[in-house]
């Protein structure tokens, strides 16, 4: 890192054309990522998009089929041992020893990282306290709740706070209070100099935390940018509206696209409309326009965009594991 | 604060031997903790020596050596070798089970020597061989076995068996790393171990076997080990069989330790 000959890179992660093929399944299909140092980078995507596989490649747990990646300027293939010293990973599924206690787990990981017996014990106590696990410290992990396991898992990745931390769905399965504590922890990590790359299925979470976001779908990055950039392509929230007369759907769609200045308005055959909106004022305009054209609405709500809508907007197809949605959309676009 | 120190530490390119050993010892400590948490893991090394020693001695004693007392110096070293080596299969199956748990992902992502998780597990398993060794010899003693070599030679014989079992456990560790399931490791290992322990002089003197079989029995490394153990324990003598056994140990470890580590690293 301190090589005087090269200008120090501003990227914590530089990945180019990463591909991972399992059998004939292209789980990761040409992913490019640039993660700036000192930032929180969110990777969003539905089930099976390739998020976990991408993280496992970057953390040297999987060999890519093709492509290359550098972590703080160290090639993941050529210098895996160096990369492992710079990276901490909290996988999607708990990677702690089930039959041991929280204390034993943390002591063992600390010792493996080269801490002395005394330091290992001290760090373990610190981490247990920080993650509110002190009371449960002596119980075997088998008896932990999902959230406790998750916290211990994160604690284990932070023993020697690494400069780059991968968190694969860090808040899935956490209650709202624990989730916001986790967010605080993540923010603190970045404030103290680390870079965090996290995956999530919740747009809200990416919104709260991430400086930049990549949306991955079917092994490819389909959108990338700052949260604001993505939002402006998406609308800050979305309008859900049920027409009284489904037969008016086509004309309602035309009007909505004109009024909302987007071409991403969807209407189901039953007259259920979904559209991104950037500004609440637009809704008033739209409703007035509907009134003029004698289009009546049965119900209406404005919601924060969901991941589903990110996909509708960005990829033009639904969440892929939901085949029915997919078909419905294809029908619609015909 | 510690985190600062760690961050400013320049990345190291290579691990020293000392670090590798320390990491292996930590991994061994982990295995011991697991054994302490689930002592039922030690059932096989507790009951097998007791039951096998009793069974074989009383079933074969009269037929092979005229009576049980004369059979003990033949069978106890034989049973010892057979039991302890069989115990080493568990190393392979447990490694397979262990590798399927999430924690191995973390071991792989840590900047530690690749051999440490394997070496640690194998090292900790020597405790199992020690238990089996002590129990078998004690059973023999209870039944009237009085080895003429004296305690120190018996201890040497026990140590030799433990070292050999440790070496052989690298073979099973290799199966453990490449196999898909723990039960297939068990299957393959038994298939190999059964003939080589029984087609040896462990239970029956080779001279009583058909000529063609004697050929195999006499080159079988297990026979050399059994003879070395008998000579040490029964007469206190050290001979070429001991050397052959130790060379065998070195060869097995030299081949299977690197092979296992390579397979472990490749498995993704
Ligand atoms: N070890 C493996 N062997 C075979 N296929 C795999 C393996 N790991 C992942 N896959 C496949 O690769 C694809 C991407 O999986 P991955 O776990 O990366 O998705 P993900 O984005 O993390 O999904 P989720 O949100 O469900 O965690 C999936 O189709 C999955 O079935
Ligand atoms: Mg995943």
Please summarize what this structure is.
Chain A has helices at residues 51-58, 80-86, 102-112, 117-130, 146-157, 176-191, 203-209, 227-234, 249-260, 280-292, 307-315, 323-333, and strands at 11-22, 25-36, 40-44, 66-71, 74-75, 87-90, 164-168, 195-200, 212-217, 220-226, 237-243, 266-267, 272-277, 297-303.
Which descriptors apply to this entry?
heterodimer, A: 334 residues, alpha/beta, Rossmann fold, Alpha-Beta Plaits, 2 domains, 4-stranded antiparallel sheet, 12 helices, disordered N terminus, B: mainly alpha, 0% strand, elongated, binds adenosine-5'-triphosphate, binds magnesium ion
Give your account of this protein's structure.
The complex is a heterodimer of chains A (334) and B (268). Chain A is α/β, with parallel strands linked by helices and 334 residues long. Chain A has 2 domains: 11-230 and 320-333, Rossmann fold (3-Layer(aba) Sandwich), CATH 3.40.50; 235-304, Alpha-Beta Plaits (2-Layer Sandwich), CATH 3.30.70. Helix content of chain A is 38%, strand content 26%. Chain A has a 6-stranded mixed β-sheet, with helices on both faces. Chain A has a 4-stranded antiparallel β-sheet with strand order 2-1-4-5, with helices on one face. In chain A, helix 3 (102-112) crosses helix 4 and helix 9 crosses helix 10 (280-292). The longest helix of chain A has 16 residues, at 176-191. The radius of gyration of chain A is 23 Å and the shape is elongated. Residues 1-5 and 319-334 of chain A have low confidence and may be disordered. Chain B is 80% helix and 0% strand. Chain B has 12 helices and no strands. Chain B starts with a helix and ends with a helix. Chain B has helices at 2-8, 17-37, 43-65, 68-87, 89-99, 103-109, 116-143, 150-178, 182-198, 211-219, 221-235, 240-266. In chain B, helix 4 packs across helix 11 (221-235), helix 5 (89-99) packs antiparallel against helix 9 and helix 11 packs across helix 12. Chain B is mainly α and 268 residues long. Chain B has one domain (17-31, 38-267). The chains are: A alpha/beta (334), B mainly alpha (268). The interface between A and B is large, with 42 and 35 residues. Adenosine-5'-triphosphate (ATP) binds at residues 22, 25, 27, 45, 47-53, 92 of chain A. Magnesium ion (MG) is lined by residues 51-52, 92, 168 of chain A.
